Amino acid sequence: MYNSKIIGLGKYVPENVVTNDDLSKLMDTNDEWITERTGIKERRWVKEGSDDTTATMGVKAAKIAIERSGLDKDDIDFIIFATLSPDMYFPGPGVQVQHALDIKTVGALDVRNQCSGFVYALSVADNFIKTGMYKNILVIGSELHSYGLDKTTRGRGVTVIFGDGAGAAVITREEDTSKGILSTHLHSQGEHAEELVLIAPGMGKRWVNDILAENDPNDESYFPHMNGQFVFKNAVVRFSEVIMEGLMQNNMDKDSIDMLIPHQANLRIAQFIQTKFQLSDDQVYNNIMRYGNTTAASIPIALCEAWEEGKIKSGDNVVLAAFGSGFTWGSAIIKW
Ligand code: ACO
């Protein structure tokens, strides 16, 4: 029996900074509304015509993570890619990474699960390593939201929240089972699938083809829809539950947390959790102010930055927690 541990982290965000004031030139919104409701001051949006895609940003983050891991690319024996914004409807970006990195013919798995995609992907990697099936797994979370957002006033409730970027981690076998990823916890509640949803180009409705034929400019199926207040209320409950679940499984309590990396959904959600668990500012890492919500990329980007800034030390108890569309949610408890 083994544990798994993270030995390399990388991130990539596009250069193009879009401030709240920039958005107010596209739609009826303003810095005060966005800052007060979400904490976001700016986000990165891929510039049209740039080479950045969900897959290529993932590759850039992955190269950094592999280099920092000290492994060679050919040591990677499995790839897991979490995203809700793949370059193509199929195949998913896992195989694009395998090709771009020129890593033999290792398996590549695509994970959906939206904002909790990285925690789900990490859990799969952890369990593949724990069973001995693979030794070194590359886990990526990457999103290019901006091409798919409604940049008119109609879409403002959703569009101002999301940003583009990628994060990656190399996970390897750890012989000492008191270290590394101690446990992961995954949940879903599909009855709320349509509270945060992008319907097209799903095959659930025959009319997708009809919409394309009609090219109806008022059709909203290709834009994400979110019942913001309902998502908020569920998020604060589920974040708390799944953090507690992880702590209890490892005989820990809130005082055991050295660093909480919440999915960067909304600063107000993170602050609610911080208050509930009575954590100091040093015990919670937030960067949503600079990047917005990058869904599956948000945790690996934040984890990478926290590590780069020296905020995570050997022996720390690091908690990852996410909640999002599905609803899906999850946590990971890590002894760094
Ligand atoms: N700028 C200005 N006004 C806006 C904007 C905007 N960008 N968006 C909406 N409004 C207006 C609305 O039209 C509405 O106007 P009205 O009162 O005249 O009808 C008013 O502001 C209030 O709108 P609400 O949607 O009720 O605003 P709310 O206070 O709920 O804030 C928000 C919206 C920020 C989305 C909030 O519900 C929220 O944070 N929800 C959590 C969801 C979340 O974090 N999602 C992230 C993705 S999911 C995840 O990662 C967990």
TrEMBL record:
Transmembrane segments: none annotated. It is an enzyme of class 2 (transferase). The active site is at 115, 263, 293. It catalyses: malonyl-[ACP] + acetyl-CoA + H(+) = 3-oxobutanoyl-[ACP] + CO2 + CoA. Residues 109-190 form the Beta-ketoacyl-[acyl-carrier-protein] synthase III N-terminal domain. The keyword Cytoplasm applies. InterPro entries: ACP_syn_III_C (IPR013747), ACP_syn_III_N (IPR013751), FabH (IPR004655), Thiolase-like (IPR016039). Pathway: Lipid metabolism; fatty acid biosynthesis. Residues 264-268 are annotated as: ACP-binding. Its EC number is 2.3.1.180. Residues 247-336 form the Beta-ketoacyl-[acyl-carrier-protein] synthase III C-terminal domain. It holds the Pfam family ACP_syn_III. Its main location: cytoplasm. It is found in: Cytoplasm. The keyword Cytoplasm applies. Keywords: Acyltransferase, Cytoplasm, Fatty acid biosynthesis, Fatty acid metabolism, Lipid biosynthesis, Lipid metabolism, Multifunctional enzyme, Transferase. PANTHER family: 3-OXOACYL-[ACYL-CARRIER-PROTEIN] SYNTHASE 3, BETA-KETOACYL-[ACYL-CARRIER-PROTEIN] SYNTHASE III. Belongs to the thiolase-like superfamily. FabH family. Catalyzes the condensation reaction of fatty acid synthesis by the addition to an acyl acceptor of two carbons from malonyl-ACP. Catalyzes the first condensation reaction which initiates fatty acid synthesis and may therefore play a role in governing the total rate of fatty acid production. Possesses both acetoacetyl-ACP synthase and acetyl transacylase activities. Its substrate specificity determines the biosynthesis of branched-chain and/or straight-chain of fatty acids. Homodimer. The last Arg residue of the ACP-binding site is essential for the weak association between ACP/AcpP and FabH. This is Beta-ketoacyl-[acyl-carrier-protein] synthase III. The lineage of its organism: Bacteria, Pseudomonadati, Bacteroidota, Flavobacteriia, Flavobacteriales. The gene is fabH.
